[in-house]
Every structure is written in structure tokens, then in C-alpha cells.
Amino acid sequence: MKKTKMLKKNYEFRKVLSKGKYYSGKYIETFILGNKRNSNYLGIAISTKVGKAVKRNKIKRLIRENYYKYENDIKDGQSIVILWKKQQSIENATFKNIEKDIIKILDKAKILIEE
């Protein structure tokens, strides 16, 4: 099992957000930037306008769980930042909705390993 490292510093997020390629789904927006390392990096950011901490953390857990489901199918050397769309309500944050978006975005970005 691969271990994805988390992006934590503001400058790491800013680099991916400014130089990364943008992909949009119905519920999430994703920025993907290739890095020159052998591991992947994941960052998740949700605006405080979406809701209070409990609701934001629930969305983060759902996104993280969906990412880990496909972690082994993603090519190495990717920095990924996932953002929840502000205009989407929290009721739309279901495992299935997020899963559909992540599959669609990873497919569009062509970072899935061909089997």
C-alpha cells in the first residue's frame, strides 16, 4: 500500500494552486501538479463559508477516504489539492457523490495507472 503524504504548509498549497492544472467536478475542484519525487502529496481545503468545523471535517474525511480508495491506482509524483465548491451544500457531501467526482477528475487528468 502506498503512503500519500499530506500538504500542510501554506506555500505548498499556493504552489500547487498557482502552477497546477485545474479540473472541476460537480462538487469538488482539483489542482494537480507533477512533482519530482517518488510519492504523492494530497492537500484538502474547505472554505469556512461552507459551514462550521464539524461539517468541514466531515467533508474532509469523506474526500480523504475516497482518495485512499484509489491511492494505489494513481501514478507516483503527483501533488493534488482538492477543494470543496462553496456553492454546493453540505447535504450533497455523500461518499458516492464525491467518489463519482474523484473518478471523473482522475480519469480526465490521465494520472490513473492503466491496467
Account of the 3D structure:
The protein is of the alpha/beta class and 115 residues long. The chain has a single domain, classed as Ribosomal Protein S5, domain 2 (2-Layer Sandwich). 37% of the residues lie in helices and 22% in strands. The chain is built from three helices and five strands, in the order E-H-E-E-E-H-E-H. Helix 2 links the parallel strand 4 and strand 5. Helix 2 crosses helix 3. The longest helix is centred in the middle third of the chain and has 18 residues. It is globular, with a radius of gyration of 13 Å.
Can I get a quick summary?
The chain has 115 residues and is an alpha/beta fold.
Mean of residue pLDDT values: 92
Low-confidence stretches: none
**CATH third-level topology:** Ribosomal Protein S5, domain 2
Query: Which assembly state applies to the chains in this document?
Result: single chain
Written as H for each helix and E for each strand, in order along the chain, the element string is EHEEEHEH
Shape: globular
**N/C terminus separation:** 17 Å
